[in-house]
Amino acid sequence: xxxxxxxxRVTVFGESHGEEIGVVLDGVPAGxxxxxxxxxxxxxxRRSGARGTTPRREADTPRIVSGLYEGHATGAPLTIVFANGxxxxxxxxxxxxxxxxGHADYTAAIKWDGFNDPRGGGHFSARxxxxxxxxxxxxxxxxxxxxxxxxxxxxxxxxxxxGQALPEGCAPVAGPEDELPEPWKSALExxxxxxxxxxxxxxxxxxxxxxxxxxxxxxxxxxxxxxxxFAIPGVRGVEFGDGFRAAAMRGSEHNDPIINADGDTSSNxxxxxxxxxxxxxxxxxxxxFKPTATIHKAQQTWNFAKEAVDTLSAPGRHDSCIALRxxxxxxxxxxxxxxxxxxx
Amino acid sequence: xxxxxxxxRVTVFGESHGEEIGVVLDGVPAGxxxxxxxxxxxxxxRRSGARGTTPRREADTPRIVSGLYEGHATGAPLTIVFANGxxxxxxxxxxxxxxxxGHADYTAAIKWDGFNDPRGGGHFSARxxxxxxxxxxxxxxxxxxxxxxxxxxxxxxxxxxxGQALPEGCAPVAGPEDELPEPWKSALExxxxxxxxxxxxxxxxxxxxxxxxxxxxxxxxxxxxxxxxFAIPGVRGVEFGDGFRAAAMRGSEHNDPIINADGDTSSNxxxxxxxxxxxxxxxxxxxxFKPTATIHKAQQTWNFAKEAVDTLSAPGRHDSCIALRxxxxxxxxxxxxxxxxxxx
Amino acid sequence: xxxxxxxxRVTVFGESHGEEIGVVLDGVPAGxxxxxxxxxxxxxxRRSGARGTTPRREADTPRIVSGLYEGHATGAPLTIVFANGxxxxxxxxxxxxxxxxGHADYTAAIKWDGFNDPRGGGHFSARxxxxxxxxxxxxxxxxxxxxxxxxxxxxxxxxxxxGQALPEGCAPVAGPEDELPEPWKSALExxxxxxxxxxxxxxxxxxxxxxxxxxxxxxxxxxxxxxxxFAIPGVRGVEFGDGFRAAAMRGSEHNDPIINADGDTSSNxxxxxxxxxxxxxxxxxxxxFKPTATIHKAQQTWNFAKEAVDTLSAPGRHDSCIALRxxxxxxxxxxxxxxxxxxx
Amino acid sequence: xxxxxxxxRVTVFGESHGEEIGVVLDGVPAGxxxxxxxxxxxxxxRRSGARGTTPRREADTPRIVSGLYEGHATGAPLTIVFANGxxxxxxxxxxxxxxxxGHADYTAAIKWDGFNDPRGGGHFSARxxxxxxxxxxxxxxxxxxxxxxxxxxxxxxxxxxxGQALPEGCAPVAGPEDELPEPWKSALExxxxxxxxxxxxxxxxxxxxxxxxxxxxxxxxxxxxxxxxFAIPGVRGVEFGDGFRAAAMRGSEHNDPIINADGDTSSNxxxxxxxxxxxxxxxxxxxxFKPTATIHKAQQTWNFAKEAVDTLSAPGRHDSCIALRxxxxxxxxxxxxxxxxxxx
Lengths: 344, 344, 344, 344
What we know:
Four copies of one chain form a homotetramer. Chain A is of the alpha+beta class. Helices cover 22% and strands 22% of the residues of chain A. The first copy, chain A, is built from eight helices and 16 strands. In chain A, helix 4 (129-144) crosses helix 8 (327-343) and helix 6 (221-229) runs antiparallel to helix 8 (327-343). The radius of gyration of chain A is 21 Å and the shape is globular. Chains in contact: A-B, A-C, A-D, B-C, B-D, C-D. Chains C and D meet through strand 1, helix 3, helix 6, strand 11 and helix 7 of C and strand 1, helix 3, helix 6, strand 11 and helix 7 of D.
């Protein structure tokens, strides 16, 4: 279903080329200050237009239609909507007959008996991450009220792109407007020249959340964070702390020695979580994004009209690397989960 | 909270050294045939006692106390309980003062103001996976009723252990009673000799589930599966299909060409899921297990009684590689998620 | 929270004098035909303007901004919004200082630390029943697909008003545009002349729903229906079948004899429900509406500015009998609950 | 489903004549003191054996199998189970062929395709209120920690029985062991002599809960309380404050004047709730219980074996007035709802 969370609930709605997309936030604490300008930075980090992203350009101006009064959240559901503007639906009619490999064209039609809105991927479009990013702005404010230490905040950036690790000395790339390190630039340009796409890995770090967040068993902090991360289109893997490398370590290497009564540890292989509960160290995790499914390069797929295998060269405007726009979305999802845990 | 699922709901309860642990299953379809013998195989695959696992030996006989009548599920909640028998609580009193690095000792005490049951890890013990395994037996029966093709079923096995990949020609290891490939045996024996522990990676494959399972956005098949997987103690990462490797691929490599009107694809980099919805190909994912936290080898930690860093050499009985017992738990979790999606 | 339902989920948002109010419907079956005209009849039955209702006049034109494509539900969340037009917020500033007796002015301010939107009752306004009525239109269509017998449908009407029972031979009054029986007319006019208000009782009848709806225990059909009914502002009581009169009957009088293998009964004291499960007979229940809280007649209340008891004569436009507009809202709520039970 | 609540979750399981019935409580605050003796008083008030109740006698000793350690709740799920002892299943085999009028025999069989446990009503038995009563004991302790004023607590009693109001000067009857007022005694004896049953009305009063409990709209305090009340077998109506009588009042009569800055009111027609939110005055509501469905007196019903209408004279042991045992169950349900609202 399209609602997530227990005490901070996020309901998303909309299709890529429908009239509006938006989000209803339930459980926003009354009195939380909020103004339209609060959204600018994060929405800009998600915006397309930069090299490697789709040239589809949207104003993406949030309109808060409920839950805000005189600059503060009222306690009632806070609803943020965005108009869909720069749509070229004709680009997509083709995909009814020839579902894109790696895309939801086929499964959406199966799931919804062919009644799904096919324009721009409909409800399966990555455009749904726009209201999620807006929700993240509100969630970050809730998280900020509960941070204990100085090195606070939720911060994500690309640490791998096109199979290349972040070069030594480079900071993680926070969004498409950031300067890319040289090997990443080459990988991107090479893929674009071929009409192809590349993937990347986003690392997220939550500096010093409250100790004790998360629930035992089902609603472990990792369970909730991964649940939210895999809701982002294009995610293939999620790992915490040492992640998959932990499987190759010994306990004596991987365990984090506790060094004081605050639970601080001298390493952070656990990614700040033990037994599903935050231990006060930074929560650290990585999210793997696949290369964009829609590419110009010719691919084989089934042609339902011809009842035969056929060759598809996807027209339209696409991101060459969706991971470029992903960091702020990862942050938003992390903040949504943490806000929910904080408000429990 | 301790309940998971929408239409097939699993509520777990119990502590490692409490009187009983168990599970309440809500939504089991009336008429599902079930008998005590159905649990034997899966519970045996989880049982300890083999080399590399804790010598704690439990009968682990399931007692179905509600929801079953004359060999069939009644439609009412089905409750399965297990007695806790072979407990040696004195082994654990130490961990109140000296929380084990990598364990929930510290976070559980913080979370629950020191009222947590400390014996054997209490509610954070991996013993909670026993009722989960039992729930998985019921869930697998529900899944079996909805499988479309022949190569059916939920099947998991170890594909990496102690940092060593599965040797060519070896089948994944399904449980602790299976013969281990030589390099794994060495890795295990070496760690045991050192009083240390090792990790592993479990791969799970769901042969041909129904097409169209999963919900758009929040409740994508990946979101729900990863939510359940990260509820298993010791999990550090989850990836689907090509997983983290997908981030280093191009779209033209990673996308799976559709080869017929049933949605079958010639590769399965997507792990059987597009846009969060199953596409009819096998669902494939991998789960990384860290090395067991509790080890005999000396480690530094904080001593709350002495208010100083101290050295802990954990007494008691432990698994040297929890991943050995994990495959059937991964299967159970996968079946629980799929059953829920099927019953929606 | 502001979401209701398990498999058919209704999320409402908005304030009386905010920019927009609306509803997100999750779980609408893909392919359900829907057009703007479908809403006209029900929205008209809720509309004010007739004698006894507030003269606030709104166009109340539904705008479907997501989930609809080429005349059918897509399967994605269906969002319906309404603009708030004819607002006179100055009318309400008074109620911050002097909370209306019987209204949520005081409790809303307490609940939300004074940050609640006070204009027109904000999120506590009966205007929220507008999106609920629209949701009901969609829900009725889902219910219609599952009705078994001929005498189908969800139908509610007033059976008591101003303390007067429905005169013999009169049909229940379905909305404010219906002609009122004489004694009701008198009661209404008399109250209006005095600047006062009156209440009423709505009876709802669901003709022949599927047998077997409802869940045992917590989610009995009565539990879910009453949950939804008490969400309508102004409801004081809900009873099923013989209702409170059943408490004065003997079992031999109240029990409904089963007369055939379809479960039909010769009486319907149970209101069509046994053990929380529908038995195939009409579901019948009554909902008591209090008189409108806001009245022109002078009342005592606390004046927070003066810190003293004071006299309030509420200005503004009010309904003299909210029950007049309630039948279609009761129908909507009933349909929402039944749709959810049908889709489980 | 069989789980209720958001942050205080109650999962019930069991059948009347199964091995065990019980309840899992999730969200019990760690540190809450609890001992077996805490349950005695409430369980005694629910116990049968007194005049007018079934002679089935159960020890009903609660066994806490998880979530309790050294006299305090641990924070993990708290599970309470009861053995089913004094069962005479042969009494009930008859009702498969001849469903009792007014009982769930027919609907349970329809709902669960005939696989329902028919013994003693199975999961639809009022015996399920035993674990609910135990849950109420825990919930009352949570409520007690949040009560603001002196006249605290949740207290229910019979105010009508067999159609007779409580005689002037009599206190509400709190349970079957209480002395009944004369007209009630006569009504009961008369019905018993005829092999028939009678109903009653329970009034519940929550003295001074915290102000501000309840959520706007769907999860109004009335919605949640009525949801829980209608889960009790045999309930036909629920009303708050003036209840159904409010529908016959004018606003000027029904509205409660606010008399001070604490929100205290000079009357309590609202039953302590405005706009779904508690206003600090006592929460007052009434619950109508129908006469017991199962009676010795002959009734017509359908005989599925004979495929004809037939006459049933129910053998076995029954309550002549279930309402006698209901007050403590009403209290338990009220406490469960309030605990959930308090823990949000």
